[in-house]
Design a protein that fits this description.
Helix content: 10-25%
Order of helices and strands: HEEEH
Largest sheet: 3 strands, antiparallel
Distance between the termini: 54 Å
Oligomer: single chain
Length: 124
Amino acid sequence: MISEDEFYEKLLEKKKNGEITVKVEDMDIIPNYKLIDSPDIVLILKLKLNIFSRDYDIEIPIPIEVEKVGLNAALEDLKKFIEREHFKLLLPMLVISEKGFKIDKKEYPLKTEFKIKQIPHDII
């Protein structure tokens, strides 16, 4: 069995050689405002991580709020977005083992930091 240190060194080597890649596969843009839901729009960024010649999907829901009065009012919609749990963050987990391939799926809450940026509508 490979040790954690050996695996860490292999990861560093693969990274250095450009053998770990992430690419944007697609984006979904969900008009949540038409459903009378919050936030107004959800952009789902779909990425593909390639490591050890295998692809892993990543999906990141990004909330977008059109709010005339600005950031403070938009925070209430962010809270609704989190509490309603309509959109999931999809992350891979790799398990290195002596045994063969196996797949499972689990759902857990995950602490998330939102870096919120307000921009004026006239630059759009």
